[in-house]
Design a protein that fits this description.
The protein has 417 residues and is an all-alpha fold. The protein is built from 16 helices and two strands. The protein has a two-stranded antiparallel ribbon. α3 packs across α9 and α10 runs parallel beside α14. The N and C termini lie far apart (49 Å).
Length: 417
């Protein structure tokens, strides 16, 4: 019966050669399916909720809380993206599984602004249910001992983390922060260590038959979703206010920041992300690294959205350190993730991105003397400088390791990461 739900004929031997081969994604299917794009829509709401949670209380404590929530939301997306990369997402069972996870993310997102207050159990319960439920369904449905063992390892560690998630939902304040930080450390740490499980060992990187073009497209799509959230945030903020010339300029400045981040992401490395997936047993390594740097970039975009909202609301008010932190910190965090992203794809660090990051940090103390809109314009000028340094005749790259063979062929001509 489970086989039939997943579009597989029942009664076939569970060797992993019959049903398993048809359930695994064909390497020829390089494009995302409609159900995956549909799944991404709920993250527009989730990212908007994260930015709204941060802007309500611009403090260091709230920043830590929003970071933890962002990591949880990202992990829900990331694991699902890997599932739809490994298994055929056009199968009815996989599609319904993705839709079920989508509803779980919707519940998580609805609780985000009050996740550390009265809606902690809703958030933690939804997160635990979608992570364990998705993996549990796969464990029951997958034919072949090898596939089931892999799902069992992942389910074991989600179960371990769920203890901290659910316990944290019943305590408050610092205790909840610490317990959920431990839960995230288990979630991320188990994946980094390839889910070492008593009696089952750990997953082999050769088990991950990743489709480079498909997974690359999924990372690009979630970055566009995050940038779309920034547009939604600044547009909604501006539309709720009485039009004034200063606010219109602030809107244009915030929009320019979004465009500049898109340009910095998409140029070269964003277009050639699939080259980072080497062959054979090494395919899982760049995918794990892409998870980290895209998390940093998505977090930077969320903070940038908050900075844009601050600039529109208070274009000429006396600035605060918290406002400077989000106006400059968002682009800085994005550049950190983007620099590492280029390193993964091309094998060397881009000097313009590193210099841009240093300039943002160096000019921070002086920004306390300027209104928010000027600080935002200064950040845009730094981003423009990063892009300009990539133009022909101005490119310089700090080489740090031998680039992959396919990227090395491009490096002499482009000199970019």
């Amino acid at each position: 019966m489970t086989y039939q739900v997943f579009g597989l004929p029942g009664g076939e031997p569970m060797t992993g050669q019959g049903p398993a081969r048809r359930l695994l994604r064909s390497r020829d299917l390089r494009r995302s399916t409609l159900v995956e794009l549909f799944f991404d829509l709920v993250f527009v709401f989730a990212l908007t909720q994260l930015s709204q949670a941060l802007i309500r209380h611009l403090t260091w404590g709230e920043s830590v809380r929003v970071l933890l929530l962002t990591m949880a939301v990202w992990w829900a997306w990331s694991v699902t993206a890997w599932v739809t990369d490994l298994y055929e997402s056009q199968r009815p069972g996989i599609q319904w599984l993705v839709i079920g996870v989508m509803f779980g993310v919707l519940l998580m997102a609805s609780a985000l602004p009050e996740a550390f207050d009265r809606r902690g159990l809703v958030f933690a319960g939804a997160y635990v249910t979608l992570q364990t439920g998705r993996t549990g369904v796969l464990l029951l449905a997958l034919p072949g001992r090898g596939l089931r063992r892999g799902a069992a390892r992942v389910l074991f560690w989600f179960g371990v983390a769920s203890v901290a998630w659910l316990t944290g939902a019943f305590v408050h304040g610092t205790s909840r922060v610490l317990l959920w930080a431990v839960a995230l450390a288990v979630d991320y740490g188990a994946a980094i260590l390839r889910w070492p499980t008593p009696g089952l060992g750990r997953s082999s990187v050769s088990e991950w038959g990743l489709a480079a073009e498909h997974l690359s497209e999924r990372y690009r799509q979630i970055l566009i979703i995050a940038l779309g959230d920034t547009v939604l945030t600044i547009g909604s903020t501006y539309s709720a206010l009485r039009p004034q010339p200063g606010r219109t300029v602030a809107l244009a400045t915030a929009f320019a920041t979004t465009v500049l981040l898109w340009r910095i992401y998409s140029y070269r490395a964003g277009a050639r992300i699939s080259t980072s997936f080497t062959s054979g047993a090494q395919r899982a390594r760049p995918a794990r690294e892409l998870d980290w740097n895209h998390l940093a970039m998505v977090a930077g975009i969320v903070v940038t959205a908050v900075g844009g909202e601050v600039v529109i609301l208070h274009p000429f008010d006396r600035i605060r350190w918290a406002w400077i932190a989000v106006i400059l910190g968002g682009p800085a965090l994005f550049l950190i993730g983007r620099a590492h992203f280029g390193y993964v794809v091309f094998g060397y660090l881009s000097r313009p991105r590193l210099v841009g990051l240093l300039v943002l940090v160096a000019m921070t103390p002086a920004m306390i003397l300027l209104p928010p809109i000027i600080v935002a314009l200064a950040a845009d000028l730094v981003l423009i400088g990063v892009i300009s340094a990539d133009l022909p005749g101005l490119r310089t790259v700090l080489r740090t390791r031998q680039p992959p063979a396919d990227a090395a062929a491009e490096a002499p001509e482009s000199g970019l990461s």
